[in-house]
C-alpha cells in the first residue's frame, strides 16, 4: 500500500487519476466528518449537500496544494481545509440584523420587527435614545458615527481611525450591542 506522500507526488507530477481516487477513498471520511461537525443541517442559505458534493474536488485540490515540508500529515491537512471551508461558509451566511438609516432620516428604511422598517422621525429618535442607554460608550460613538452624522453610512475604516480601534473591533462592538438596542426600541 502506497503512502499518501507517494500518491500526492503522482497526482502533482503525473496527474494520475488512480492516485487521486485512492486519496479520495482514504480521506473522504475525514472530510465528511468535518462538514457534519461544523455545518448545521437546517440553516437557511447553507447547502450542506453542496459542500459534501465538493468532497472529491477538495481532496484533489488539497493534494495539489499540499506541502510536505510543513511536517503535517495529509489527513490533518484535509481535516483543517474542510473545517475552514465550513466555517467560512457558515460565517458568510450568518446575518447580523443591522439598522440602516437612509439619506434624510425622514423616509422609510430598515429596522421594525415585522416589516423591518423605520416609519417616522420618532422611531429614529427612539433608536438614538436607546443608543445613549448603552453602557459601553464606544458602542454609542460607533452607532452615532455610523448612522447619525452623515447622509450616508460612515465607512468602518473612518470610524476605526477616529476611535483608534481596528475595523473588525468596531464591527464586533456594533454587532454585540445591536441586541441591546433592540431591547429598548
Short characterization:
The protein is mostly helical and 185 residues long. The chain has helices at residues 4-14, 17-38, 48-53, 55-65, 74-93, 121-132, 137-148, 156-163, 167-184.
Features:
65% helix; mainly alpha; elongated; 0% strand; 185 residues
Structure description:
- The protein is an all-alpha fold and 185 residues long.
- The chain is 65% helix and 0% strand.
- The chain has nine helices and no strands.
- The longest helix has 22 residues, at 17-38.
- It is elongated.
- Mean pLDDT is 76; it is low at 95-119.
Q: What percentage of the residues does DSSP assign to strands (E)?
A: under 5%
Shape by Cα distribution: elongated
The separation of the N and C termini measures 66 Å
> Portion of residues in helices?
55-70%
Largest sheet: none
Please identify the structural class as seen in this structure: mainly alpha
Helical region count? Answer: 9
Low-confidence stretches: 95-119
SSE series = HHHHHHHHH
**Quaternary state of the chains:** single chain
User: What is the mean pLDDT?
Assistant: 76
Using the CA coordinates, give the radius of gyration: 24 Å
